[in-house]
Structure formats: C-alpha cells, structure tokens
Automatic annotation (TrEMBL):
Residues 4-120 form the Response regulatory domain. The lineage of its organism: Bacteria, Pseudomonadati, Verrucomicrobiota, Verrucomicrobiia, Verrucomicrobiales. Keywords: DNA-binding, Phosphoprotein, Transcription, Transcription regulation. It comes from the Bacteria. It comes from Prosthecobacter fluviatilis. PROSITE patterns: HTH_LUXR_1, HTH_LUXR_2, RESPONSE_REGULATORY. This is Response regulator. Residues 145-210 form the HTH luxR-type domain. The modification 4-aspartylphosphate is found at D55.
Length: 212
C-alpha cells in the first residue's frame, strides 16, 4: 500500500512542488494539504495520513507547538519537518517535540524522498552529526547561533525571532494568541537569559540572529 502523505506549508509553490515530486512515486501519494495549521488539524483528523510534512514557520501557529499537538492527538502518525531553518538550531527542538525527521529546503529531492520513506517506516531521519550530538548530550551546534537556541525555550525563541523580523509586542501577541503583557514578560526573560541590558540591545541581537 502507498504511504499517505499530508503537506502543511504556508507557501503554495512549496506544496505544489512536493505534490508533484511525491505523486510521481509508486510507494506514496499526497492525500491532502493546507497553508495554515487550523485547516490542517481539521483535515488530518479526517484523512488520517501516515506522514505529515510541515514547515515550522506557519502563519497562524508555531510549528514546534503544532508538532507536540499532532504527536499527542495522533501518536502513530509520523512527522517530517521540511524547513528553511538551520537544522543545527531547530532540529533538536523538533525531535524532542515529536518529529521523526528534518530536511532543509534546498536539499536534493532524493533526500526529501529518503526522509519520507524512513519516517514512514518508523525510523528517524536526521543528519548523523546532529543525532550524535544529541545522544552525547552536546545539544544543538552552530557556533554563536547556538546561544539563543540553547538558552531560550521554544516560545521565547519564537518571540525572539519575531522581534528580529520587526514585529512589536502587540503584533506578536495577535499572531501567537497571547496578551501583549505576556509577550513583554517573555521579552524581559529573554533579555535576562541572554544578558542584554535594554530593549534596544534585544532588538539588535534579534536582528543579527534572523539575518545570519
């Protein structure tokens, strides 16, 4: 039987490209897709795919939080992350949230297919170096990029990135369904963890982070 694949990405061109690639294979087929998490959650509950391919940057929800929800709701379903974000920074978080694999956008299509097949079979699909680092307790790598990734929680890292992309507290609160007061509290904790003295330093550090 063919593996049933569901695609979640907020870029239609990515969805179309993955559909074309996957539907050419004899052992897998795309049974549905969505550009937002809320639609995906409703469809996944009905369609019951074997594998969900998703990006961690979505319009209406944190991808890492979504992985946790999908894992809790559908424990036998597998999740493969397909993202532009550096594996060294995000893959460990995705693994701990419940994802079985991570492929960076821009990698060869053969690697995407290999990841889908391994994940569908119940095997992990991460780079050997990353898995070795996690097993040995080394945590995520990535030089100076590793500091925020190592020190901040999933929610804090998400807010830190949004600050670097120019979102103010009210915009962040709206996108994450939080209060502006809660966002400001997260910002204060981020500053403390990263040793930043002011909101201006936070902004400058966040901008440097997203531009790397």
């Amino acid at each position: 039987m063919k593996s049933k694949i569901y695609i979640l990405d907020d870029h239609p061109i990515v969805i179309e490209g993955l559909k074309k690639l996957i539907d050419q294979q004899e052992d897998m087929q795309v049974i549905g897709s969505a550009e937002d998490a809320n639609t995906a959650l409703q469809q996944i509950a009905k369609l019951k795919p074997d594998v969900v391919v998703l990006d961690i940057t979505l319009k209406d929800r944190s991808g890492v939080d979504l992985i946790k929800k999908l894992r809790a709701s559908h424990p036998t379903m597998q999740i493969l992350v397909y993202s532009m974000h550096d594996e060294n920074v995000y893959a460990e978080r995705c693994l701990r949230a419940g994802a079985m694999g991570y492929v960076m956008k821009g990698e060869p299509s053969t690697r995407v297919l290999q990841g889908l097949r391994q994940v569908a079979a119940g095997s992990f699909f991460f780079s050997a170096s990353l898995l070795g680092s996690i097993v040995s307790g080394g945590g995520p790598r990535g030089g100076s990029r590793g500091e925020p990734a190592r020190m901040l929680s999933d929610r804090q890292l998400e807010i830190f990135e949004m600050v670097g992309r120019g979102f103010d507290s009210h915009s962040i609160a709206e996108k994450l369904a939080l209060s502006a007061k809660t966002v400001d509290a997260h910002k204060a904790n981020i500053r403390q963890k990263l040793g930043l003295a002011s909101a201006r330093e936070l902004l400058m550090e966040a901008v440097r982070w997203v531009e790397k």
